[in-house]
Amino acid sequence: SADVGLNLTDIQGDILIGMKKNKELFFFFTIVNSTLFRSQLGSGILPLITPTSQLLAVDTQPTTAVNVAFSQRGLNALGITDDLGDSSFANGQIDNVATILGDETSNWEPVFAGSGIHGVFLLASDTIDNVNATLSQVQNLLNGSITEVYSLQGQARPGDEQGHEHFGFMDGISNPAITGFSTPLPGQQVLDLGLFLLGESGDPVVSRPAWTKDGSFMAFRQLQQRVPEFNKFLVDNALSNPNLTADQNAELLGARMMGRWKSGAPVDLTPIVDDPVLAADPQRNNDFNYTHSGFDIDTDQTHCPFSAHLRKTNPRAGLTPEDTANHIIRAGIPYGPEVTDAESAANVSSTDPTLERGLAFVTYQSDIANGFAFLQQFWANNANFPGAKATPPGVDPIIGTDGLGQADVSRNPSGLDPNDSTKIITIDQDFVVSRGGEYFFSPSLSAIQNTLAL
Ligand code: HEM
Questions:
Q1: Distance, CA 225 to ligand 1 centroid (Å)?
Q2: For residue 140, how far is the Cα from the chain centroid?
Q3: Using N-to-C axis directions, what is the helix angle for 246-258 and 227-236, rounded to 10°?
Q4: Backbone dihedral region of 214: left (phi > 0), alpha (psi from -120 to 50 degrees) or beta?
Q5: What is d(CA 70, CA 30) in angstroms, rounded to the nearest whole number?
Q6: Nearest atom within ligand 1 for CA of residue 175
Q7: Residue 42, SS3?
Q8: Which among 174, 221, 435 is the best mutation to test ligand 1's pocket, defined by most ligand atoms within 8 Å of the CB?
Q9: Could you say which DSSP state residue 380 is in?
């Protein structure tokens, strides 16, 4: 259903539809020889870059999909002096930490706080061997003009957990539909292309360098997940529905914190028990907006808490008019191994760095301050959002922080108990820990050819 005006052969594939592979390597690099890099980029690398058009049909999909994106420092290294019109991108993610994102920088991988990250290759395939083979090909072509500064190997979880993030919840269900590109499923909001691609209709920044058209800003975050601690919290704070077992009451708390059951079924549609059939039905699993006849959307939390991650990051009909400016396309993938028996027995995440797990979080938007950074700052981290409630909803129980850079500040969501929406369940630890990240620009293929390459 692609719009005739949209050139899908020119737009990098991860932006609008995601590379949808089970393995994805994020390979962060420094450009050490700009001239050599620029000449190899056009001749050798460009033919390897996977556009959207190639991902749309199974028979054109490459064995390994490749995308590339650059930080502001990377553009500087290439001698590009244009202002892309996004100060978050220009200043880098570290500049957003203290007042906007609320990370504790002591938890950051030092590389994200340094100045060495010029760009990132995204390499996605069915096997790590394929990914590594393509990485060698890229490195041979670049012939020493880049050096690796960091890499993160993403991988889908095994077996039945495929598609689920590490806490166990199905992910990747609610992304927006886009005018002129996708046919909306029931309940899916349709948004302007310019919210995601620069220079397209609805881009909030009117004047950008022409070559940035059909590129997108990518926010990357390495978000560690403390899974045994999360599971223990659910058991220790299980709800008290008399018709449910203790395990089911723990599961209900988790579902209400997330806004969906582990299967993906939205609690707004099935508030007490999971419904895997509903979860698996794309015609129904996103078809809700928190309104119910006989209930007041401004006060009702019996279906879904105001503080639920899903409702915090997209309140749907809870805002009037419905928000059309602050949306992202999510394209992340889990990283790290499954929880070990020793970790589950101890209810504590191992300190062994090889056992770190989490989400290699990726979002695309045309304006970072309206997209990812807005959702984190003004919605997830804002205890009073949505506003004008008798009891403040509290920060997002999954990703919110009200510590703004301080350690050990407890979080106080309300609404999690369907029988007493004023009750606050104190969370005195973080289940998601930001290990840092960076903002990148993912250019069109023609921009790579005509502007970035020599
Ligand atoms: C939806 C998990 C971080 C924004 C979801 C869903 C899950 C989830 C399970 C429901 C699946 C779906 O609807 O597609 C997580 C985990 C995170 C994380 C485990 C961290 C490790 C973030 C961050 C943001 C974010 C940092 C933005 C600041 C969203 C949005 C939705 C969503 C916008 C869709 C809401 C909707 O349209 O109804 N997340 N998430 N998530 N998440 Fe997250």
A1: 13
A2: 31
A3: 120
A4: left
A5: 10
A6: 37
A7: helix
A8: 174
A9: I
Cβ burial, residue 222 (10 Å; 0-12/13-18/19+): buried
Burial class of residue 341, CB neighbours in 10 A (0-12, 13-18, 19+): exposed
Bridge-based pairing state of the strands 329-330 and 432-442: unpaired
Separation of CA 258 and ligand 1 centre (Å): 8
Active site residue 214: no
Our mutation pick for probing the ligand 1 site, out of 93, 263, 309, 311, counting the most ligand atoms within 8 A of Cβ, is 309
Selected catalytic residue, list 14, 171, 274, 275: 171
Residue 376 CB–ligand 1 contact under 6 Å: yes
Identify the helix (H) or strand (E) that includes residue 117. Answer: none
Contacts of 214 (CB under 8 A, 6+ apart): 7, 10, 11, 197, 198, 199, 200, 444, 446, 447
d(CA 175, CA 192): 13
Does residue 217 contact residue 364 with C-beta atoms inside 8 Å? yes
Rounded to whole angstroms, the Cα distance separating 28 from 67 reads 12
Burial of 112 (0-12, 13-18, 19+ CB in 10 A): buried
- Cα-flanking dihedrals φ and ψ of residue 12, to 5°? -60, 140
- The tokens for 40 are 């190899």
Separation of 4 CA from ligand 1 center, angstroms? 31
DSSP output for 156-223: PPSGGGTTB-TTS-B-S----EETTT-PPPTTPPEE-GGGTSTTSTT-S-----GGGTT-EEEEEEEE
* C-alpha 311 to ligand 1 mean position (Å): 10
C-alpha 222/C-alpha 150 separation (Å) is: 12
Distance CA(428)–CA(419), nearest Å, equals: 23
Q: Name the DSSP letter for residue 266.
A: B
Q: What is the pLDDT along the chain (454 residues), one digit of tens a residue?
A: 444 579 999 999 999 999 989 999 999 999 999 999 999 999 999 999 999 999 998 899 999 999 999 999 999 999 999 999 999 999 999 999 988 999 999 999 999 999 999 999 999 999 999 999 999 999 999 999 999 999 999 999 999 999 999 999 999 999 999 998 999 999 999 999 999 999 999 999 999 999 999 999 999 999 999 999 999 999 999 999 999 999 999 999 999 999 999 999 999 999 999 999 999 999 999 999 999 999 999 999 999 999 999 999 999 999 999 999 999 999 999 999 999 999 999 999 999 999 999 999 999 999 999 999 999 999 999 999 999 999 999 999 999 987 665 555 678 999 999 999 999 999 999 999 999 999 999 999 999 999 999 9
For ligand 1, whether the C-beta of 314 sits within 6 Å is yes
Whether the CB-CB separation of 159 and 174 falls below 8 Å is answered with no
